[in-house]
TrEMBL record:
GO terms for molecular function: magnesium ion binding; malate synthase activity. Pfam families: MS_C, MS_N, MS_TIM-barrel, MSG_insertion. The active site is at R318, D609. The gene is glcB. Acetyl-CoA binds at V118, R125, F126, S254, R291, P519. Involved in the glycolate utilization. Catalyzes the condensation and subsequent hydrolysis of acetyl-coenzyme A (acetyl-CoA) and glyoxylate to form malate and CoA. Mg(2+) binds at E410, D438. This is Malate synthase G. The lineage of its organism: Bacteria, Pseudomonadati, Pseudomonadota, Alphaproteobacteria, Sphingomonadales. Keywords: Cytoplasm, Glyoxylate bypass, Magnesium, Metal-binding, Oxidation, Transferase, Tricarboxylic acid cycle.
Amino acid sequence: MSEYLQSNGISIDSALHGFVTESVLAPLALDADRFWADFAALLERFVPVGRKLLEKRDDLQAKIDDWHRARKGQPFNAMEYRTFLYDIGYLVTEPQPFAIGTQNVDPEIATMAGPQLVVPSLNDRFVLNAANARWGSLYDAYYGTDALDAAPAQPGGYDPVRGAAVVKAAKAFLDEAVPLAQGSWADFTGGTPELADPAQLVGTRGDSLLLKHNGLHIEIVIDPAHPIGKDDPAGIADVLLEAALTTIVDMEDSVAAVDAEDKILAYTNWLGLMRGDLQASFPKGGKTLTRALEADRDYVAPDGTAFTLPGRSVLFVRNVGHLMTNPAVLLADGSEAPEGILDAVFTSAIGMHDLNGLGRFRNSRAGSIYIVKPKMHGPEECAFTNELFDAVEDMLGLKRHTIKVGVMDEERRTSANLAACIHAVKDRIVFINTGFLDRTGDEIHTSMQAGAMIRKGDMKTSDWIKSYEARNVGIGLKCGLDGKAQIGKGMWAAPDMMRDMMEQKIGHPLTGANTAWVPSPTAATLHAMHYHKVDVFARRAEIAGQPVPTLEPLLNVPLAAGQNWSPQDIRAELDNNAQGILGYVVRWVDQGIGCSKVPDIHDVGLMEDRATLRISSQALANWLLHGVCTAEEVDAALLRMAAKVDAQNAGDPLYKPMASDPEGSFAFQAARDLVFKGVEQPSGYTEPLLHAYRQKVKAA
């Protein structure tokens, strides 16, 4: 149980109070008494406003539910529906044409194009791996994944046949990205290369060569003494790609943070990154290894000038959205404080360690703190975030718009009003992106009463999703994000399926997006190749001349009109969703793991977080509501899939089986509630139930 300190009318977990006061404020020479007094005043000001915004979400949802109920059995009238959405304030009038005014943005965000990692803040080792993924070995990425179309490596150490195939593929990439004036890199024997474009050779690091293409660096590591380099005619030991330009350190969908203990760990890791002293030790191969942040990389330009390139990703921190509260701080009435407000204050104060030069390295050379704000519904909620960040800047003595914001376009009311949302944060916005899974979960929940939805797998080809993805880029460019902010795309969820990723994910830069999410540092290295194949900024110039797709397709509700699924189809869909829910929830509730590679129903490992859980639980809740399936069929599917998930986790000594005692399993009961109480969950979110059950497990 937490112990609380009373301060200015609020109660603060004593451990959190001590951490912030001693580790965050003291090195910044900020007056702690004033900080906590200002913090209490900020809560008093913003909590009531935030609550009213959440009430508006509920009010709009109730009106939409009633509208659909009143038209049950009638053909869907798109024009009438759109007029109704304007009448209730769900849709707002588009702002007059404008361009964002954001300043002091690092080039990795504003003027470069490359992969983006998202990493759970609670895992120090993963956080370090992600931050260090700015540079990745193409040799390693090819050798260890199925991205290379060659025979798998033979067991028992290094496989020279596989290695030769790796070198061949890497040099073919060099021929495409940084071609020689004559011949192939396969025939290069050393020295200063004669390039087709001599300007692409931008530096050296010892004997190694630094090249540049489409704004991204490539380092050809020359080391004839290396086990790989000794057999290469030019002594090439590796090809390093500049890969994860940016990383989002996540305090939201990929973590299970339900109390002060969890939040302190998240804030501690964020502080370690800002100070540059975060380390993680772990056993491997009978030894204890220690991981730390990579240093910057020193080079010499062709004219003899020394210069340095960053060794790490530029880091964002993703705060919690407006909905959830946390017992780390209690308000005067005893209720929990909004977690998003806690994050805004504490992560910004921690970010000041970087701004003030207190760390070993610099995160933002432009002098900004980068916060991603998820799950905002419409422009009023974006304006609330803008005002909150204004107040945090005033509280911490920061210049206006030092705190930048990334707006996640993952809720239907935000997608439908995206230009107005951008306008609400127009002087601090540095990021918009699309998130298919959360967006689909909100699509289902918003139109829950309209009828039965199409199957989950069919959502990817529905009218609204195509419009959503295209409008995101088109509106972002119309609002002047090009050269000032990222336009991003969503996650490739299958970390073991890199060949498929290489075939499909090139579609993201082709849309004009200058970043997209990848599930691992290895995937970042491979996805970086797509940004060499596609000149994103040239692609944007083509897109900018095209009209933004209209709103109508975005509002097409993905109803399964006229579908006559067989019992086998229904059972397969129930099993697929039930297995996905249980596989994720059991780790979240029982072990506090918010993101991991979870085997799907076909035993393919997928990176799962709460967004995937939201869509699966809402899909089953929708079918249950509209009689596509019965409660008995859902329960039967959950029990069948509990046994499957138990078997998939049989090798985990910390795992608690569900199928043998579903009534006694908090995880199983949480999964069941997510379906059977799915209709009544706010916006279809999974957090309230997950937090409640995780807190039960921790209390027990």
